[in-house]
UniProtKB/TrEMBL annotation:
<dbReference type="InterPro" id="IPR000866">
    <property type="entry name" value="AhpC/TSA"/>
</dbReference>
<feature type="active site" description="Cysteine sulfenic acid (-SOH) intermediate; for peroxidase activity">
    <location>
        <position position="46"/>
    </location>
</feature>
<dbReference type="GO" id="GO:0005737">
    <property type="term" value="C:cytoplasm"/>
</dbReference>
<comment type="subunit">
    <text>Monomer.</text>
</comment>
<dbReference type="InterPro" id="IPR013766">
    <property type="entry name" value="Thioredoxin_domain"/>
</dbReference>
<dbReference type="InterPro" id="IPR050924">
    <property type="entry name" value="Peroxiredoxin_BCP/PrxQ"/>
</dbReference>
<dbReference type="InterPro" id="IPR036249">
    <property type="entry name" value="Thioredoxin-like_sf"/>
</dbReference>
<dbReference type="GO" id="GO:0034599">
    <property type="term" value="P:cellular response to oxidative stress"/>
</dbReference>
<feature type="domain" description="Thioredoxin">
    <location>
        <begin position="4"/>
        <end position="157"/>
    </location>
</feature>
<keyword id="KW-0676">Redox-active center</keyword>
<dbReference type="GO" id="GO:0045454">
    <property type="term" value="P:cell redox homeostasis"/>
</dbReference>
<keyword id="KW-1015">Disulfide bond</keyword>
<keyword id="KW-0560">Oxidoreductase</keyword>
<comment type="similarity">
    <text>Belongs to the peroxiredoxin family. BCP/PrxQ subfamily.</text>
</comment>
<keyword id="KW-0575">Peroxidase</keyword>
<dbReference type="GO" id="GO:0008379">
    <property type="term" value="F:thioredoxin peroxidase activity"/>
</dbReference>
<keyword id="KW-0049">Antioxidant</keyword>
Amino acid sequence: MTDLTIGMPAPEFCLPDADEEMACLEEMHGIYVIVYFYPRDNTSACTLEARTFSDEMEAFAGLNTPVLGVSPDTIPSHRKFAEKHGLTIRLLSDPEHQVIERYGVWVKKKMYGKEYMGVERSTFIIDPDGRIAAIWRKVKVKGHVDEVMARLRELKGDSRQ
């Protein structure tokens, strides 16, 4: 597991999205980027989080900040998930957990007394220099997108609420 901290270089990645287009962090240097990791398409909390980020896409776009959702799901799963829920964020597929592990969010979890490996719901703001500017681990979905937006505005020196 990687212990990423604020100020460290963000691990670079190139992953395919639901439209089979590659999203490469290196190509986004010069702007802020939101990268959030979620466990699985079409589960209640993951759907709420994706829909909430999508609902705020106009505000994120106004701040020139793309939002990238990463999970181990396949490209076809992401495509169906996005279509079913009208999602406007880019969903990136990492079925081999390469990026998920580099960000330290592939962790041991426990449910009903059973241990298993899975994605820890986490969000990172990457700054224009490719460094980690903010981190949320073990995210609770309710109110999270508002927290991310507030922190992004603070980082960008934007006083709008």
